[in-house]
Prior knowledge:
The structure holds 3 protein chains of 3 kinds.
Chain A: H1 4-18, H2 23-26, H3 29-44, H4 59-67, H5 72-80, H6 83-90, H7 92-96, E1 100-104, E2 107-110, H8 111-137, H9 139-148, H10 153-181, H11 192-218, H12 236-255, H13 257-265
Chain B: H1 10-34, H2 39-53, E1 58-59, E2 66-67, H3 72-79, H4 81-98, H5 107-131, H6 137-166, H7 173-205, H8 222-246, H9 250-259, H10 270-282, H11 295-306, H12 308-337
Antiparallel strand pairs in B: 1-2
Helix pairs in contact in B: 1-4, 1-5, 2-4, 3-4, 3-5, 4-5, 5-6, 6-7, 8-9, 11-12
Chain C: E1 6-14, E2 20-29, E3 34-39, H1 45-52, E4 60-65, E5 68-69, H2 75-81, E6 82-85, H3 89-92, H4 98-108, H5 113-126, H6 142-154, E7 160-164, H7 172-184, E8 188-192, H8 196-202, E9 205-210, E10 213-219, H9 220-225, H10 227-232, H11 239-242, H12 245-252
Parallel strand pairs in C: 3-8, 3-9, 6-7, 7-8
Antiparallel strand pairs in C: 1-2, 1-4, 4-5, 9-10
Helix pairs in contact in C: 4-5, 4-6, 5-6, 6-7
Amino acid sequence: xxxxxxxxxxxxxxxxxxxxxxxxxxxxxxxxxxxxxxxxxxxxxxxxxxxxxxxxxxxxxxxxxxxxxxxxxxxxxxxxxxxxxxxxxxxxxxxxxxxxxxxxxxxxxxxxxxxxxxxxxxxxxxxxxxxxxxxxxxxxxxxxxxxxxxxxxxxxxxxxxxxxxxxxxxxxxxxxxxxxxxxxxxxxxxxxxxxxxxxxxxxxxxxxxxxxxxxxxxxxxxxxxxxxxxxxxxxxxxxxxxxxxxxxxxxxxxxxxxxxxxxxxxxxxx
Amino acid sequence: xxxxxxxxxxxxxxxxxxxxxxxxxxxxxxxxxxxxxxxxxxxxxxxxxxxxxxxxxxxxxxxxxxxxxxxxxxxxxxxxxxxxxxxxxxxxxxxxxxxxxxxxxxxxxxxxxxxxxxxxxxxxxxxxxxxxxxxxxxxxxxxxxxxxxxxxxxxxxxxxxxxxxxxxxxxxxxxxxxxxxxxxxxxxxxxxxxxxxxxxxxxxxxxxxxxxxxxxxxxxxxxxxxxxxxxxxxxxxxxxxxxxxxxxxxxxxxxxxxxxxxxxxxxxxxxxxxxxxxxxxxxxxxxxxxxxxxxxxxxxxxxxxxxxxxxxxxxxxxxxxxxxxxxxxxxxxxxxxxxxxxx
Amino acid sequence: xxxxxxxxxxxxxxxxxxxxxxxxxxxxxxxxxxxxxxxxxxxxxxxxxxxxxxxxxxxxxxxxxxxxxxxxxxxxxxxxxxxxxxxxxxxxxxxxxxxxxxxxxxxxxxxxxxxxxxxxxxxxxxxxxxxxxxxxxxxxxxxxxxxxxxxxxxxxxxxxxxxxxxxxxxxxxxxxxxxxxxxxxxxxxxxxxxxxxxxxxxxxxxxxxxxxxxxxxxxxxxxxxxxxxxxxxxxxxxxxxxxxxxxxxxxxx
Lengths: 270, 343, 253
């Protein structure tokens, strides 16, 4: 697991990506959310041995990354970070499932390896799609989109509060940690006792901050109702985006172009 | 531990999404109806607090390694079940979207595993009765440790259950369980101790925060229903998976036993057959494999792979095409907009 | 325009833990006045300010804004009249963009569409921060945050502005910007601050709080001349009145 500091840095970086300007950034959040959902379901619904059928789905992340002008290297490095976890669970497949299912020249391929690589590819695809969704939309717009799609307003409102105070509190925590570590030597002083008090302090400060925020909401006329600022309307472009991707992804899922193309290239040899 | 998208089948992921969505909707309306609107900023800020608190590590006693706060049980004690559940859910949403922890489809599973158990099981059924209204130091610590351990054990069980049911990993139910539960026992003890330490501090500094009156409680009529439902689900799942792992043909065998028929046949004509064809293509339930493949599945896998040599050639070709498309798109874009700083 | 009058009578506030932050405070501020409230840490300044729009409820005493007595029933109406800028702008800017934050109050007042937009633009223009409208609050500098926080209140067109430490933690340039804003307002202004030089420059009237009571209330220039009073209240003269230290050293030699 990575450090939270690193994760927060990534958080900022992704937010900055969302501030860029491309046609894809302007597509309605709802269209992007739904298209991503279709994509994930199509990818996940493939059988565990359908390794080759996963490849055509790379069209979705690749086109969005290129169209949105997102930094490839940065996204790839972020996506690779989740691989270790998947490896831990996936590595049992080759060990447990040793039936030979394919022979490529001298190499015998077991079903376990096929399903192992299929797990890895699926993770790459689904994680990429989630990151791309955020980088093309930004968290607040995403929340607004979710609210328009029917997520309860209370939930969305507190999600936005979380987002707003994430950095404020993280900076506070970083200062606390620095103050402690500067006075800790050789692992002494970082035990549970001081930790409990520190986190306790942080908690009380956060709590008091929440009270101040609530007060400042009240003094600006808040009366229990969260008003969503009028979101963008769902335009023709958004519909086209959603329909286009939805149909393309479904077609890829149903007709496995990888197999068709493969048959074409190898002349139908099995 | 977070579930990952890659290990979840659409049926499991979708079901857990639905369950979590219903819970989110219920909790949201409960909070809205409670009229306690100061809860909303409090929940948001405490969600951010969980992230911030995770930046601070501590040395785990006796081992010398370092750990940090998970926070589920702490939120439940501070906010009460409904608000805590929503807060944990939103922490997980942010993790899924920004930190690529878990994934979007597995989010439902994660919200349930890490949110439902601490908020609706560990806190109300264990921590609250064990700690009582005015706990001593020892009692509060014991209650927190027990509640945290049980909460995390249930969560780990959820992960194992959902993973096996999804059938993407070949790991058998029982060995995955043996792998997960002991690890989470240790994590649970540490989490309990940390939660207790923080709670003891708050208890000294601002005892009124621990009155737990902040959040509306689950109504009496609902609580037993939910708990019974949950226990029944767990039991059924455990039994089913047990049989499944004992029998060579896996879960299908146990389903056949339970439903009393060897196969579930649908009507062949018209719309239904069309639907069945689509379903066959989408393969919503990938073959359940636990320890060994049965004959039929082997054949199926074999035929899939027979065509897959050409499939791999085709797959690589399409991948190349996709990359070319992306390359062209970005070339065109940078030609239009001048040079792009990112490369 | 009698509704710009702020009248506080025998105000008392005891916190839940038993601390008496404000014991007995009375004053009357009339239309268009600019009044500074100064005092040591813990003298009760912030507590007093929080009462002025009903964020805290008084243990005893009355607050009257114009002709309206502050009661739970009149709180919503009073919050439209009294705009409160909090000490820490991070507590005040809680939405995801500056424009949304400025729109928060007007939206709650029931505005929408073009009217809402116009309010937001006007308020941000007034504090010279229109260029920040699409930014996220955590990307702003300290001075920018402060000015936007002021805009969030201006957008509700209050008659009375209450501010806690408007120049706290700002660099000299940002401080000067905020001061220029303050001097340009026509509102009745009540400000709590430790920035005594700002008080001297902008506020003709000063109230000193000491241990929850009013220790002095009068023209700022008179109050700042009374060194003994200031010392008793853990205060001192503004630097501008202390004379140049370099010249003073020179004079001694």
